[in-house]
Specification:
By secondary structure, the chain is of the alpha+beta class. The chain has 7 helices and 16 strands. The strands form 2 sheets. Strands 6, 7, 8, 9, 10, 11, 12, 13, 14, 15 and 16 form an 11-stranded mixed β-sheet that branches. Strands 1-2-5-3-4 form a 5-stranded antiparallel β-sheet, with no helix packed on it. The protein starts with 15 loop residues before the first strand and ends in a 5-residue tail after the last strand. The relative contact order is 0.12.
Amino acid sequence: VRKPRIMVTVRTVTSHFRYLRVFSPPAGAVSSSMSRIVRVEIGANPPPRLDKALARDVPEEAHLSRSRLARLLAEGGVSQGGVVVTDVRARVSEGDVFQIEVEEAATVETQPEDIPLAIVYEDADLVVVDKPAGMVVHPAPGSPGGTLVNALLHHFGGELSGVGGEKRPGIVHRIDKDTSGLLVVAKSDAAHHGLAQQFAAHTIERRYLAICHGAPDVGDPRLKGVPGVSFEPGAVIKITTMLARHKTDRQRQAVLFQGGRHAVTRLRVLETFGRHAALLDCRLETGRTHQIRVHAAHIGHALIGDPVYGGRRKLPANVPGAEAVKAFERQALHAASLGFFHPVSGETMAFESPLPE
């Protein structure tokens, strides 16, 4: 995908691309499976690591992002001379040939459901949806139905990108069940790969609105002493940490400074409500699970209503609005704006969603 205003270097790679059917279902079967073999020949002056070399030299028509290649390596989908290779740091040489077996998405078995959707934008390649709080994005254990995917399958008659697999067709990113706001969903495989590349490159513009406990102040000595916190012009609080699944509570994410995945959040106070709460503008540089919620709690300003990271914080009973806050049973977080380059046309796309009632 070529994006406007971005200079790219195109390099010719000698490679071959073929498909191999590995499973043919009997007549009347509900689902089928398909694999393709991608042949990658390493070019001149290869990067020192296998994963980077494959990402550089994989044929463009294979539509394999670097993150997808990393998963295929870990799952044993890459081989050389019939021997499976899983070491991402393995050294490679010019002329080395690797085979990548890519399992295509199975025929979708998730059932379409007639659930109302707030469609913000739609064309032949993608759709932007304003998701309500309380809706899960894709089926998972405990949420087999009633999801955004079920609703989209009904809306589009089952025609969504199959790249995400049978449980996540078209899903390029997600927001938590109890977070409201904007998502982009791919209808074509080309759109799916193009959007995935933009998310991986952190070029997607994502802005959230949140209401937190307390009022963050860039002049607060306590805040200045929090690990991972720095400040930028415009009273922006930048939080840079690693995030990983909590060791004892699998439903939580934990802040780390060694190991885990790099995470950067920028917060700016838009409005304060005394010293008890504040409306935040939140911008994601990375998009990790629960990132805003974890980072807000890390700096001592957990989001109002957050059942996982908010602890048992309450507003004093004599504060106006305390009862409304007490009755608010979800994290006060809303995906308010979304911007990206259209993965097929290259057009700049920007969408906004007002705060729900």
